[in-house]
Amino acid sequence: QVQLVESGGGSVQSGGSLRLSCAVSGITFSTYVMGWFRQAPGKEREGVAGISSDTTTRYAESVKGRFTVSKDNAKKTLYLQMNSLKPDDTAMYYCAADGPLTSREVEDIPLYHYEGQGTQVTVSS
User: Does residue 29 sit in helix, strand or coil?
Assistant: First the structure.
């Protein structure tokens, strides 16, 4: 059974930082393409950051220079370090995973085969 469990969300003021984690089980973590997407109320899902098995990373333009995606294969955990947070970053953040042949495009991350339940991030001005 595949499980992706996010944690680390919370409420911060503008300019603050948060680190999200996603604990993964049931897949060969090191070979999968992993990513984060978010969804704000009334808006569509938006790919945020992705990381391939070779640790190549990619980001949405809106978060470049502020967010960093990483992973620990030994711990089967995906991370998203979020700095300089803005109110526009307020959303539910989801971890996602798909097989090695999936798209590497950030905008396709919300379409990945597996996703978690999400963790809420709220940024106040």
Answer: helix
| Residue whose pair of structure tokens reads 């999968």 in the numeric block | 32
Listed in sequence order, the residues at least 6 apart from 120 whose beta carbon sits closer than 8 Å to its beta carbon are 9, 10, 91, 92, 93
Quote the mean pLDDT of the chain: 97
DSSP 64-110: TTTEEEEEETTTTEEEEEE-S--GGG-EEEEEEEE-TTS---GGGGG
- Kindly tell me the sign of the dihedral angle through the C-alpha atoms of 107, 110, 116, 120: positive
The mean per-residue pLDDT over the stretch 86-101 comes to 96
Under the phi-then-psi rule, with left for phi > 0, alpha for psi from -120 to 50, and beta for the rest, what region is 15? left
Contacts of 122 (CB under 8 A, 6+ apart): 10, 11, 12, 90
β-partners of residue 79 are 21, 70
For range 80-84, the mean pLDDT: 98
